[in-house]
TrEMBL record:
Residues 453-475 are annotated as: Disordered. Its EC number is 2.7.10.2. This is non-specific protein-tyrosine kinase. InterPro entries: AAA_dom, Bact_polysacc_biosynth/exp, LPS_length_determ_N, P-loop_NTPase, Wzc-like_C. The lineage of its organism: Bacteria, Bacillati, Actinomycetota, Actinomycetes, Kitasatosporales.
């Protein structure tokens, strides 16, 4: 994974990364607070060979050299005796320690630096004064044990002598816990954990993070990228939401791209659908219709999502009569057609039927779409999602083109592939994709200072539907 991809993954998952870092810091603080302080006291011993004395100066020098070599050879072995039971058991009894000889041995370390005849003995304890007393007692007992071991049989004098060069001082500060180190370790572990989770999420996430990624993956034309905008206070779209917001400009780009798509065989009936619910297909269809009507194009928006219709509510229109009323012969299209946003024609869904799939795939539905295409320059059909139900699979072949809406960072790639394959299987003509609910960046405004969408201009009234109009524009 490239560094840029890693940084993007961290930026997208920064709340989780920050949470992990904070948890790591909390764990470091907790470890410090829950750890009993440990103090260390140290004594130092000097090992020397006893001189026999009484010789000439030359002999004394030779004896000193031999004694030094003897001490260097023995000192490493002496260090290993410090933790033996011969040393620890008497110390436990003398100081009345609440520990076994083996437990005391676990708190003692002895080190003989190479090239020296020094032995450093360190004792750890939870009580500072007790640590110093124990270290001094260990040093004394250790010296006795070594001198006894080095006393030849039949002699009362040891060959070596151990002297204390530095007695144990009462430590003033514990050696553990170390708050700074624990905090740093917690922060590092938290950062690594957060980074790992962010990268794992990035690897497992099969959604599209950019419009370009969608276009490259599907191989379909990218008609537009619609930024996400928080829902308003319930006002219908007729209150003037086109204006000059970044979202409105995105719909104008979508409108332009759609007008240039398939210029030799321009579609008159376009179905807007998605793979799954909640991807923004209805808002895309409504925004596209409003943008087209803004230019004076006669547009009819049809709500063909007969299971969860939303167009009527979006425009503040009546849903009691609409498409299903025309399909079952209870009304004609001109009787249930409603006007919105400067006489934008809207055919709502009407009463919800028990058999939407059969109605939308019927010959009567094809007749209605052809009738609307003759009366309007463009018919935008909002349909049900492709994968949960079969409604759009039967409707798509009746239209002249389909727009597939994909939600940014939500729609899995396999669902998009399945939706595109479903359209291809039934012979549907996919005009392209729309990347909806994209994150709104600073560049979305193009630096022109777009204002509040709610302060947009009212749409110019489009021309009235032309009865019996022919498809001049398609030619």
């Amino acid at each position: 994974m490239e560094l840029r991809s890693i940084l993007r993954a961290l930026a997208r998952s920064w709340p989780a990364v920050v949470a992990c870092v904070l948890l790591g810091a909390a764990a470091g603080w907790a470890a410090t607070a829950m750890t009993t302080p440990v103090f260390q006291a140290q004594v130092q011993l000097f090992v020397s060979a006893r001189s026999t004395g009484g010789g000439e100066s030359g002999n004394d020098t030779a004896q000193l050299q031999q004694g030094s070599s003897f001490s260097l050879a023995r000192v490493q072995s002496y260090a290993a005796i410090v933790t033996s039971r011969q040393v620890t058991a008497p110390v436990v009894n003398t100081l009345h320690l609440d520990a076994t000889p083996e437990e005391l041995a676990g708190r003692i370390t002895a080190e003989a630096p190479l090239g020296t005849v020094l032995i450093d003995i360190t004792v750890s304890d939870t009580d500072a004064r007790r640590a110093a007393e124990t270290a001094d007692a260990v040093a004394v007992r250790f010296g006795d044990v070594v001198e006894r071991l080095e006393t030849p049989d039949g002699s009362d004098k040891s060959a070596v002598k151990l002297g204390v060069t530095q007695t144990a001082a009462v430590p003033t500060a514990p050696v553990s816990p170390r708050p700074g180190l624990n905090l740093a370790a917690g922060l590092l572990v938290g950062l690594l954990l957060g980074t790992g989770l962010a990268l794992l999420r990035e690897i497992l996430d099969t959604t599209f993070k950019s419009a370009n990624a969608l276009a490259e993956f599907t191989g379909l034309p990218l008609l537009g990228s619609i930024p996400y905008e928080k829902p308003d206070d319930g006002r219908p779209l007729t209150s003037g939401t086109v204006g000059h917001s970044a979202r409105a400009e995105a719909f104008r780009h979508l409108r332009t791209n759609l007008q240039f798509a398939q210029i030799d065989d321009r579609p008159r009936v376009v179905v807007v659908t998605s793979s799954l619910p909640g991807e923004g297909k209805t808002s895309t269809a409504a925004g596209l219709a409003l943008s087209l009507a803004e230019t004076g194009t006669s547009v009819c928006l049809v709500d063909a999502d007969l299971r969860r219709p939303c167009v009527a509510r979006s425009f503040g229109l009546v849903q009691d009569a609409g498409l299903t009323s025309v399909l079952i012969g209870q009304a004609r299209t001109d009787e249930v057609m409603q006007q919105a946003a400067g006489r934008l024609a809207v055919l709502t869904s009407g009463p919800m039927p028990p058999n939407p799939t059969e109605l939308l795939a019927s010959e009567r539905m094809g007749e209605i779409l052809r009738e609307l295409a003759d009366r309007y320059e463009l018919v935008i059909v909002d349909s049900a999602p492709l994968l949960p139900v079969a409604d759009t699979v039967g409707l798509a072949p009746l239209a002249q083109g389909t727009i597939l809406v994909v939600r940014a960072g939500k729609t899995p790639r396999d669902r998009v592939v399945a939706a595109a394959e479903a359209l291809r299987t039934v012979g549907g003509r996919t005009l392209g994709t729309v990347y909806s609910m994209a994150p709104l960046t600073k560049r979305a405004g193009y630096g022109y200072g777009y204002g509040d969408p709610s302060a947009g201009q009212q749409l110019a009234a489009p021309p009235r539907p032309r009865a019996g109009a022919v498809k001049e524009e398609a030619r």
